[in-house]
Amino acid sequence: MIDFKGAHYPKEAILYAVFFYVRYAVSYRDLEEIMAERGVPVDHATLNRWVVKYAPLIADAAQQRKAATAGSWRTDETYIKVKGEWTYLFRAVDRDGQTLDFMLSERRDEDAAIRFFERTIDRNGWPDKVVIDKSGANLAGLGNINIALILAGWYWLIEVLQVTYLNNRIEQDHRFIKKITRSMMGFKSFNAAQAPLAGIETAHMIRKGQLGDAGSSPFQTFADLAG
Question: Which CATH number is correct for 72-173, 3.40.50.1400, 3.30.70.2570, 3.30.420.10, 3.10.580.10?
Fold first, then answer.
């Protein structure tokens, strides 16, 4: 359960603001106006603090509660602008398009790929197969993980496929993330980008039915993650 103790606004108002920001293509100043129209006068700087504080906590709860995913993965990176520079959002879905994990990185290299795959495996278990694009970084990262399996005495390895058309599912999945981030006009710092991206990915998981009761509204599902 997320602790809202000390907050100067009701929990429901905070969650509504955070959800609205990560679900719809609005700026903080747009959201400030929307909240005022609903009788909640709050400035855009406070809204930013709410997103930075609560979105990652809700995203962590989503990872723990999401439905089981398949062992055949699709991985790829999309671009996110931070301080006017392009950074890399590593993302993975399963064969059915269900979100596995995501990680923002300043670099697209072997070390970043290893960190991403280790994180995704830790949260989802070992995959049977991973489909990647022609990225040498991802190929090298998975190669290192397979070497670690061999050294540990495992008798099976992760099957790695570099087949472009098989990755169409995740390339299509990027579109929702890009649509929401486009209105944010880029992020001022790497750390400032991570929190809203975690919230955006969580809202996307809700859209795909990975969390909560199908009869609940998207906002209710989001709020339930806060406990």
Answer: 3.30.420.10
